[in-house]
């Protein structure tokens, strides 16, 4: 008369133990490992390269600022850089606003 079968609770198994707990956390651990290699590690690498570039700035280098201005470095102080953007026109910017170090002779080609 009834078409629905009875549902019974499954008996607990004692075999899960440590292995059962490890398999339940495995997807979470894998997600953090993947995030580290896809997001955190490349960002740290770029930041390290940026710091190395800022430390290596010297007079005569051709650079691009974060605002898109191109110029030649005329003076480097601890946290600031003076850039010559045109003949007789110099601006002072923070070192952290320098985004790219251009190859020598790039400004002449423009």
TrEMBL record:
NCBIfam families assigned to the protein according to its UniProt record, in alphabetical order: yajC (TIGR00739)
Organism, scientific name: Janthinobacterium kumbetense
The protein's name: Sec translocon accessory complex subunit YajC
Entry's family note: Belongs to the YajC family.
Subcellular location: Cell membrane
Keywords: Cell membrane, Membrane, Protein transport, Translocation, Transmembrane, Transmembrane helix, Transport
Membrane disposition: Single-pass membrane protein
Membrane-crossing segments per the record: 22-40
Pfam family, one: YajC
InterPro entries: Preprotein_translocase_YajC
Main location class: membrane
